[in-house]
Amino acid sequence: AQSVTQLGSHVSVSEGALVLLRCNYSSSVPPYLFWYVQYPNQGLQLLLKYTTGATLVKGINGFEAEFKKSETSFHLTKPSAHMSDAAEYFCAVSAPRGNEKLTFGTGTRLTIIP
Amino acid sequence: DAGITQSPRHKVTETGTPVTLRCHQTENHRYMYWYRQDPGHGLRLIHYSYGVKDTDKGEVSDGYSVSRSKTEDFLLTLESATSSQTSVYFCAIRITGTGNTEAFFGQGTRLTVV
To answer: Does B50 touch chain A (CB under 8 A)?
Structure first.
C-alpha cells in the first residue's frame, strides 16, 4: 500500500521568495509520484510527475521536484513565488503500474503575500 | 482536458434520497475513478473501474455504489444520501501507455445533502 504525508496544511510566502512544499511518501515498491495544483472552484491539474530516470523533474509554471529515495521525499519547489501561484497543492503516489489508483495527501494551501 | 464531463455540477438533495452523479469521457480510457474532496482530508478514493462492468472499492466506499455499462460512462450512486456525504466529487481517468501514467480530473460536482 502507498501513502503520502504533506507537512503543513498552510504555507505562506512573500512574492519573489522561494516556495517549498513538503511531501513524504511510503511505498513498498518503487513509486510513481505526482504533484497536482487546484485553483479555486476548479479540478486538479498535473504540475509534474516522477516515474523513472532523472530524479529532478521539472513541471509547468516554473515548479520542480526532486525524488529522494533515501529520504522518501518528493518536495515541490519554485525559486520565486508569483501571486498566481496561490492555490492548493496535492502530492500523490501510486504503484508503478498505470492502472493503479492514486493516493493523495491532505493538501497544502499556498498563500502569496504581496 | 482529456474530455471529461461531470454532471450535474451542483446539486442539493434531501437526506434519504438516492442521488446519481455521472462522469462521461470521450476518449475511451479504460481506467476511471471517483474521489471525494473534503477539507483536511484531501482526495479520497470512493470506487474505481478498470473496464466495462469491472469495478472495485476504494477507501471510503460505504454508502456508495457505481456502475459502468459503457466505456465512456461511470456512474456514482448515493443509495440514501446522508449529510456526511456533502462533499465535492471528482471523476478522474488514468491515461496509461509508454511514459503516460497521470490522471486527469473533471471539474467536480458539489453535492449538498440537507
So the answer is: yes
**Per-residue pLDDT tens digits for B72-103:** 999 999 999 999 999 999 999 987 766 667 88
**Which three cell numbers mark A47?**
504540475
With residue B38 as reference, give the H or E element that holds it: strand B31-38
Please tell me the predicted confidence (pLDDT) of residue A34.
94
DSSP of A62-99, one letter per residue?
G-EEEEEGGGTEEEEEESS--GGG-EEEEEEEE-SSTT
Contact B94 A90 (CB under 8 A): no
Distance, in Å, from the CA atom of A77 to the CA atom of A91, rounded to the nearest integer, reads 12
DSSP state of B19: E
CB distance A93 to A1 below 8 Å: no
- C-beta atoms surrounding B60 within 10 Å: 18
Q: Which of B73, B72, B75, B43 is nearest to B59 (CA)?
A: B43
Measured between beta carbons, the chain A residues lying within 8 angstroms of B25 are none
